[in-house]
User: Fold this.
Amino acid sequence: MTRTNLNRFGTLIAFVLLCIGFSIAAPAAFASPANVFNLVQQMATLAIVATAATLVMTISEFDLSVGFSASLAAVICFVLFGQGYDVWLAVPAALLVGIIGGAANGVLVARFGIPSFVATLALGTILSGFAFGLSGGQSLFQSVPDGFKSLARGDVFGIPVLGFWIVAVLGVAAFVLTQTEFGRRLRAIGGNAQAARLAGLPIVRDVIVTFAIAGGLSALAGLLLASRLGSVQHTMGEPLLLPAYAAVFIGTTASPTGAPTVAGTLLGVAITGVMVNGMTIVGVEPFVQKIMTGVIILVAVLLRRVGRAK
Amino acid sequence: MHKSIAALGLASILALGVSSGALAAGEKVSVITPFLAAIATGEMIEAFKAKATEYQWTVDVVDTAGDMAAFASRVEDATTSGANAIVLVSVDPAQIQDQVDKAKAAGVPVITIDGAKNASSVLNVTSDNYVLGETMTKFLFDQIGNKGNIVRFFYSAHPGVHQRELALDAALKANPAIKQVADHYVAVPGQVDDSRAAMDAMLLANPGDGAINAVWAAWDEPGIGANLAIEAAGRKGIVIAGIDGNPQAIDLIKACGAYIGTVRQGFGEMASIAAGELNTILAGGSAKADELYAPVELITRESLGVTCP
Assistant:
């Protein structure tokens, strides 16, 4: 294998090595069909939130509100269920709130020039306040229709339903980013916003649309998570934020240019998912799990930088 | 990039090495909680591990630090990995019903400590949280002469804690001379620091003598945070009561400061009862009931034999 191929596929090879290592350590459990099923389910919501983060990072911005949007969408949906509303009304309403929240982020960033770190953190905090208020701080798990639960549970021909969501969402996102005019514009904005502006690209509109899509995807992830668990807490989406960006950063190590890609992000999600799942199965102490997960992320990104500098 | 492959490979080898001991023993019991950072939860898990050693079980403890999605995932992992039993601590299994149902379907008994009864779990060992809240609230109200202003530190996401809050709501209704002037939803983890910061703000917002007479803490750690704020501000005439019998809270009661009482949950007893019942279940028997209660005890200066100057 050439050095170029190693640079490109090194992260993928590392992922395969991880899988082989855990399969040897716990052959009956880790490599079992039931665990592969679990892994796909466990990675799905993170994959969707990480895709939202990938889109925003493509335009060289950050969206820190993704977890908050996920929580709020789930809370809104369950509150509407509690008031007797049907799935077909509650789910679109929750998604719409996510899209509106995302678009508001985009307006703050593109129209008012507020740094995305500040704008999305501020708006995310507002969203979390609404989630808290609507839920009363309580865990909601009553009056959940079976139709909603089936969004993220069960399987079709042995493939988990959430696996189809991963393929659909990430497939569309990858297609949009690589095969459409809109995707090329986003990469141009991320590569050099000033040049894109001088070239006459509709930067303000594209940035708002990108954040709106990210908000919608975050809301979708929150709904799928709520469907999988059958319960909602007003903080449930917040732990998705850091792993999502960790996955994107790991994914950039698999990208020839170092730019975020949907495929790379999926690989990052898979590495983090397999790490936690595998270490739990073989019984690694929780503190060691945290240390090792952090070390893996750091080593992957650091060595990529060192390799590129050479 | 050769190095990155080597590093990631090394990490997996390390993982296998660290895990080798965990695969060696007999019955494998997975203990999973989102709240290991809470002292009471830690106490229950340590007590359970001690009993598990007597029964020669291998115990894997997993903490998801408040992350319910990860909590659900780890329950799935435990089911898949062939655990002989799953013990959920400080959480209502209804919050991850699908995962608990799957564990039951796979023949893995699920028991909860400080949780809630559930059709798919075989046992919940807990204290009667409403009684805990009622006992502490009555004591606190008596201490301020059943009149004055209180502040509340709460966390409704925990079903047991919510029961205590319902007891406070009922007591407030029955005692109109007591007003709740502020409340704070406690952040977990980081509950002590978060509660201290909230109490700082409450003290500033209610500056006069008698503006706050008492702090109602749904469990001891927020009360400890509030105590820090009261000490730092030098405010007098405020008393605090909590629940759990946290050792630090008991020290504060002995120190004759603002902290005057706590209701001790028998966390060690809960864990011991749970381990004993699980031993019966693993031997092919059944639990005595689907819910068992550990005894509670009100701890005050009087009960501790402390005389304050």
About this structure: The CA atoms of residues 72 and 263 of chain B lie 31 Å apart. Chain B touches chain A through 53 residues (CB under 8 Å). Residues 2-19 of chain B form the longest helix (18 residues).
